[in-house]
Amino acid sequence: MSEHLSNEQLIQAAHQFGTPLYLYHAEKISEQYNKLTTAFNKSNVVFFYACKALTNINILKHIKNIGCNIDCSSINEAKLALHAGFTPERVLYTSNGIAFEEIEEAKNLGIHINIDSISNLEKFGKKFGHSYPVGIRLRPNIMAGGNLKISTGHDKSKFGIPVDQIDEVLNLIDKYNLHIKDLHIHTGSEIKDVEVFVKGIEVLFEIMPKFNELEFIDLGGGFKVPYKDGDAETDINLLAEKVKEAFDNHPYHKPLQVWFEPGKFMVSECGYFITEVNVLKQTKTTDFIGVNSGFNHLIRPMFYDAYHKIKNISNPDGEVKHYAVTGNICETDTFAWDRKLNEVREGDLLVFYNAGAYGFEMSSNFNSRYKPAEVLFINNEFHLIRKRDSFEDLLKNQVEIL
Ligand code: LLP
Fold first, then answer.
1. pLDDT tens-digit readout, 267-280
2. What local confidence, expressed as pLDDT, does residue 1 receive?
3. Which of 15, 44, 226, 243 lies most in the core, judged by the most C-beta atoms within 10 Å?
4. 214 in the same domain as 74
5. Which of 262, 293, 322 marks a domain boundary?
């Protein structure tokens, strides 16, 4: 297991590239991928990194270099994947609520496509019939995931075609002679309990015999990662056992591949978000820290109540005190309430852990602040992989008519 980057390394990066800064450790990504391939080495399982978590082109290239495939949620992600050098057969595109034209574009790129509505399935059948194999994203009606905002497989979710509408799907397949090569489900993010995946497989087992050209089933992503010391992650070895057991115990004889689309599992822990303390504000009830960031850079704590471990790397032996860690934007942007930190002084560096997945990727220019720079630590060296925004970037696409 590779250690976290040390305080000294984080401080060095902050001095070299400035703050706020996203820093990624390439070796940690490789380590996470190895965990998956080692656990599943006895099964016919393939992994597609859900790149919505982090799309810096260098991260995509690293993922490609270590042999992992890629899952995309928009046509632009698919184009970035091809730009990174993935061949089309290593690119999967699972969309939601998109215009049919985008599916046509994906077909022209020659990548795998999962269609997630009856409407687009019908349009696809009308236009392409049996000529281009596709997958179907189903909604298994299973409640799973860390919180409601990141639960996608339940019976009120907009994602996928509800399994209870399978007869409509079969009618379309009949009518247009559609070539269905896979069934896909993704029930949510941060799923600790491996039984959720088994339940998903069971739902698919029920309907699989109705599809006679299936080559694989795709169980989506959603593996949980640890956020605090002692926190559990999805037990990947147990999951591998359970998936194998489910197939061994089922009379479905055609050999099927299983696909997974891990996002967080691949890149959450490789990421560090380094900020600097602008101000301390002591009030009767609370000691506030104001750092040079906010939900414009890391929205997960505010949007999902996500917990990110925070450390004061400038004063690691300081007396432990309680703080509210906030940002510098014009709305409530509390990263953490009542958080224990080694005594914090203005100018100290505070690091947020687990910042690789959905960190930079969900950042914005709110308050006309710059998006942070990104740095990759690879082969023992720091490399700038995205420049910090500049003032020109704020005006770049604006059309000044006055
Ligand atoms: N496949 C599909 C179809 C998905 O929609 C997602 C995530 C994944 C795979 C990857 O899930 P993961 O392994 O990363 O859990 N922004 C939220 C997470 C939203 C996930 C959306 N879909 C967060 O920061 O917690």
1. 999 999 999 999 99
2. 46
3. 243
4. yes
5. 262
Q: What is the pLDDT of residues 135-166, one digit of tens each?
A: 999 998 888 888 888 888 888 889 899 999 99
Among 52, 96, 139, residue to substitute to test ligand 1 (most atoms within 8 Å of Cβ): 52
Cis amide bond preceding 20, omega within 30: yes
pLDDT digits (tens, 9 = 90+) for 200-220: 999 999 999 999 999 999 999
Assess whether the C-beta atom of 191 lies below 6 angstroms from ligand 1. Answer: no
Sign of CA dihedral 100, 104, 109, 112: positive
Tokens linked to 128: 């392409």
pTM, 2 dp: 0.97
Would you say the CB of residue 264 lies under 6 angstroms from ligand 1?
Answer: yes
What are the CA-CA distances from residue 148 to residues 145, 184, 187, 336 (Å)? 7, 20, 11, 20
Task: Give yes or no: residues 294 and 234 share one domain.
Answer: no
Q: How many Å apart are CA 118 and CA 292, to the nearest integer?
A: 47
In 3-state terms the chain splits into helix, strand, coil percentages (rounded to 5) of 35, 25, 40
Active site residue 330: yes
Q: Does the CB atom of residue 218 touch ligand 1 within 6 A?
A: no
* CB 382 less than 6 A from any atom of ligand 1: no
CATH no. for residue 335? 2.40.37.10
Is 355 within a domain? yes
48: containing domain: 40-262
More confident: 188 or 340: 340
